[in-house]
Amino acid sequence: MAALRSTFLLGLGCLAVLSGCGEEKPTEPQRPRVQVQQAAATEFAAAVTLTGDIQPRVQTDLSFRVSGKIIERKVDVGDRVTARQVLARLDPKDLQTALESANAEVFAAQARVTQASAAFVRQQKLLPKGYTSRSEYDSAEAALRSSQSALKAAQAQQANAREQLSYTALIADAAGVITARQAEVGQVVQATVPIYSLARDGERDAVFNVYESLLIDPPKDRSITVSLLDNPKIQTQGKVREVTPTVSADSGTVQVKVALQSLPDGMELGSVVSATASPPGKASIALPWSALTKNLSSPAVWVVGEDEKVSLQNVKVARYLTGKVIISEGLDSGQRVVVAGGQLLHPGMQVEIAEAKKP
After folding, report:
1. How many alpha carbons fall within 13 Å on the CB side of residue 255?
2. Which of its termini does the chain have fewer beta carbons within 10 Å around, N or C?
3. Closest listed residue to residue 66, CA positions, set 155, 161, 153
4. What's the rounded Cα separation, in Å, for the pair 161 and 104?
5. Which residues, in sequence order, are bridge partners of residue 272?
6. Which residues contact 347 (CB under 8 A, 6 or more apart)?
7. Per DSSP, what are the bridge partners of residue 81?
8. 277, 224 contact by CB (below 8 A)
9. Burial of 140 from C-beta contacts in 10 A (0-12 / 13-18 / 19+)
10. Mean pLDDT by 10 residues, the chain (359 residues)
């Protein structure tokens, strides 16, 4: 009897277990939790700070107009010079000899002119009296004119020799500052070889080397504040005067010259200066670095749709900044972008959204 009761109770227990198993529902797969940020377009203009230096508006290379050996150098780099100041001299011996030879030729030509003139005067007196022939008179006149022409040629050679001798002195053609020296005393130089570089007094430019990409959208306001790098309190205003049309093969930059309205104390020739320029703003979306991923080789972000499913969307990054990226193309305002928890996502996966993050 006891054995029959145990069997009955065991059957009831099994029946209860089986009935419980039949009522259990399959568990729903757990969705990954992500944090999203709503995309919001704003005007973004990245300020660019450039470093350059103060350069003269006009800079000329000074050179001798004749060849020779330098025997004297009167100025050095950094010296201020005045107009018509002698900067250097060449050895004048050879040109002095040429001038003396030209002087002697002039004296000889003058003597021939005097002799021919006296002979012609005699012929003029003798011809009316019949004491000379017409041919002798014409010969005397031709000899006089020939000697006069020879004298003019000799005088021209003399003037040229005197001018060549004056070229042994290198003279500043304007007031300014010597910025470079390319020769030393004792050096034999050829004509037109630069000896000094002279920065003329007058207007000054701030010159910057700028990457060409920064000039695609130049700022509308061409006025720029230029400040001294060592002391930013020393400032002046300027306007873009010139942009070189060619790109440097060495640095890949173009040269931008800013004409300065004035040159304050402390901002001298050669001073290092800085300037900040802001290009026109563009509608862009700022996202944290964590939102950025890639689709093959292109940058992309995860976007959450209406059905809480994610999709991978290619974007164009305009600028990488500290802690965030600026998206210029590929996103619209109002879209929800995954900014955290996107490491294990795949397209079409349904996600659970955590607390939304404000842009």
Report:
1. 13
2. N
3. 161
4. 12
5. 53
6. 310, 311, 312
7. 176
8. yes
9. buried
10. 48 48 55 83 73 92 95 93 95 94 95 94 87 88 94 95 95 93 94 94 90 63 82 89 84 88 87 79 80 84 85 84 83 85 81 66
